[in-house]
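step=encode ok
step=design start
structure_in=
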C-alpha cells in the first residue's frame, strides 16, 4: 500500500500505521465511492464553517462566523491538546462552555437540511410551521425565505449568551419563533460531558457532518401522510417528530463531546419532569440507545457565592472529567455517526473501523423497513447504506480505489431487479428488518 509523498511521487508505507509519524489518514468519499488518504488536519481540525458558503451566500454574516470559529478553535485545541498529554480533568469558563454549545448549534443550523428548508417561496413551503412562518414574513415585510435563515443565523452568532439571561429576550424578539425555541432548547435542556474509549483499540470515526448528530427516537407517522400517492404522485411523509437524548461532536479519534438531555439526569426532579412530558405526549416513551453511557455533569465553581445562593457569571468555572466509554458504547456512537454520514468517513485504525461498521450494519435499529423504501426521501439513505457496506470489502485493498456513486449504483440495481427480485437485493445488502407494524412506528434514526 502506497502513501503519496509531498513531491507527488510514491513511497512504501510502514507496516504498522502510526498517525503520529505519518501525516496521512484514511478517507472514504461516500459520494464518489473512492477510498484514499487525506491530511490529518483536514479531518481532525475545527470543521470548516464556510464549506458550503458558495451555496449559502452568507456575505454579511461571514465575519461573525469567522470570529466564532476562531474562538471555538482556541477552546477546542486547548481541550484536545490537554487530553493528548494525558489530562483527564480540565476546566473552562461559563463563557467558553456557552461558545462550544453555540458552535454546535450553528454547525447544525448552517447544514444543508436547514439551508434547503428556506428555499422556494411560502407557497411551496411544506413544513408544519408554515402558518407561523407566514405571519413572521408579514410582520417583517420579508419576501425571500432565505432572508429568514440568514437573519436567524446572524442573530444567533452575534448575540452573546450572558449570565443574566438577557439573550433570551433578544432571541425571542428578533428570530423566527420556531427556530428560536429550538435554539433555546439546545442551549438549556442538556449538559456538556466528554468521554474517550475505554479500550486503546477503539476509536471514534470522524464524518463530514459529525458535529451536531443527535441520538433519539424519530416517529414517522405513516398513517397520516402528507401525500398518499393516490393521485399518482409519490407518497410523502410529513415532518417527523424527533427527540434529542444525546448530541455528539467527535473532537478526535479518542475524544468526543456529548450533550446529554437533562431528562437523563439522576434525581427525582428529572424523573418527575420526564413523566410529566410523557403523559402530555410531548416526549416519547422510548429509551435512549446511550442510556448506559456513564457520564455526569461538570462541577461548577461560582465566582460570586452570594448571600442567597451562587450568582451565575461568565467567569464561573466548569470542571469536566473525561469519562470512559465501553466498546459497545463506542460502537453505538460510531453507528450513529455512520448512519448519518453523507459526504465522507475518516479513521486511523482499520481494525476499529471494521468492528464499528459491522456493528452498524447488523444493528436492527438502523435498518430501513421495506415499506419505507417506497418514500422518495429514503432512497438516498438506502443508497448510502449500500455504499457503507461496500467499504467492508475495500478497507484492505490498495489505495486509491475505484469509485462507485451510490445513487447511480442503486438506480442500476433497481432497474435490473424488479418486484421480488428487488426485495431480495435489499435483503442481500442488509437493508431490511423483520416486517413490523408501521403505524406510528418509532425508528431510531439520527438527524
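sequence_out=
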Amino acid at each position: 500500500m502506497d502513501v503519496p509523498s509531498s513531491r507527488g511521487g510514491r513511497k512504501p508505507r510502514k507496516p504498522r500505521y502510526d498517525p503520529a509519524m505519518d501525516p496521512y489518514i484514511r478517507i472514504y468519499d461516500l459520494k464518489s465511492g473512492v477510498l484514499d488518504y487525506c491530511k490529518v488536519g483536514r479531518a481532525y481540525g475545527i470543521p470548516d464553517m464556510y464549506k458550503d458558503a458558495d451555496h449559502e451566500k452568507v456575505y454579511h454574516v461571514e465575519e461573525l462566523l469567522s470570529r466564532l470559529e476562531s474562538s471555538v478553535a482556541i477552546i477546542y485545541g486547548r481541550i484536545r491538546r490537554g487530553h493528548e498529554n494525558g489530562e483527564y480533568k480540565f476546566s473552562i469558563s461559563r463563557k467558553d462552555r456557552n461558545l462550544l454549545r453555540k458552535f454546535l448549534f450553528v454547525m447544525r443550523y448552517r447544514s444543508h437540511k436547514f439551508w434547503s428548508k428556506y428555499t422556494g417561496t411560502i407557497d411551496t413551503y411544506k413544513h408544519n410551521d408554515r402558518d407561523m412562518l407566514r405571519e413572521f414574513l408579514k410582520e417583517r415585510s420579508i419576501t425571500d425565505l432565505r432572508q429568514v435563515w440568514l437573519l436567524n443565523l446572524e442573530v444567533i452568532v452575534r448575540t452573546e449568551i450572558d449570565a443574566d439571561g438577557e439573550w433570551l429576550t433578544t432571541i425571542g424578539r428578533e428570530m423566527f419563533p420556531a427556530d428560536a425555541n429550538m435554539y433555546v432548547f439546545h442551549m438549556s435542556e442538556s449538559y456538556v460531558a466528554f468521554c474517550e474509549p475505554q479500550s486503546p483499540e477503539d476509536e471514534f470515526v470522524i464524518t463530514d457532518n459529525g458535529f451536531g448528530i443527535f441520538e433519539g427516537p424519530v416517529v414517522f407517522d405513516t398513517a397520516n401522510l402528507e401525500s398518499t400517492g393516490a393521485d399518482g404522485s409519490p407518497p410523502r411523509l410529513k415532518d417527523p417528530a424527533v427527540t434529542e437524548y444525546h448530541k455528539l461532536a467527535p473532537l478526535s479519534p479518542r475524544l468526543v463531546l456529548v450533550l446529554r438531555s437533562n431528562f437523563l439526569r439522576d434525581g427525582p426532579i428529572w424523573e418527575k419532569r420526564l413523566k410529566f412530558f410523557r403523559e402530555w405526549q410531548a416526549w416519547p416513551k422510548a429509551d435512549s440507545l446511550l442510556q448506559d453511557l456513564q457520564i455526569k455533569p461538570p462541577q461548577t465553581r461560582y465566582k460570586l457565592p452570594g448571600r442567597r445562593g451562587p450568582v451565575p457569571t461568565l467567569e464561573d468555572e466548569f470542571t469536566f472529567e473525561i469519562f470512559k466509554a465501553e466498546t459497545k458504547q463506542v460502537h453505538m456512537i460510531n453507528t450513529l455517526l455512520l448512519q448519518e454520514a453523507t459526504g465522507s468517513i475518516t479513521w486511523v485504525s482499520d481494525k476499529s473501523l471494521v468492528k464499528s461498521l459491522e456493528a452498524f450494519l447488523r444493528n436492527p435499529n438502523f435498518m430501513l423497513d421495506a415499506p419505507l423504501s417506497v418514500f422518495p426521501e429514503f432512497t438516498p439513505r438506502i443508497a448510502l447504506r449500500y455504499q457503507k457496506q461496500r467499504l467492508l470489502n475495500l478497507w484492505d485493498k490498495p489505495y486509491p480505489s475505484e469509485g462507485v456513486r451510490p445513487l447511480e449504483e442503486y438506480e442500476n440495481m433497481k432497474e435490473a431487479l424488479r418486484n421480488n427480485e428487488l426485495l431480495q437485493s435489499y435483503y442481500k445488502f442488509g437493508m431490511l428488518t423483520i416486517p413490523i407494524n408501521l403505524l406510528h412506528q418509532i425508528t431510531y434514526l439520527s438527524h
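step=design ok
step=annotate ok -> Residues 1-20, 426-447 have pLDDT under 50 and may be disordered.
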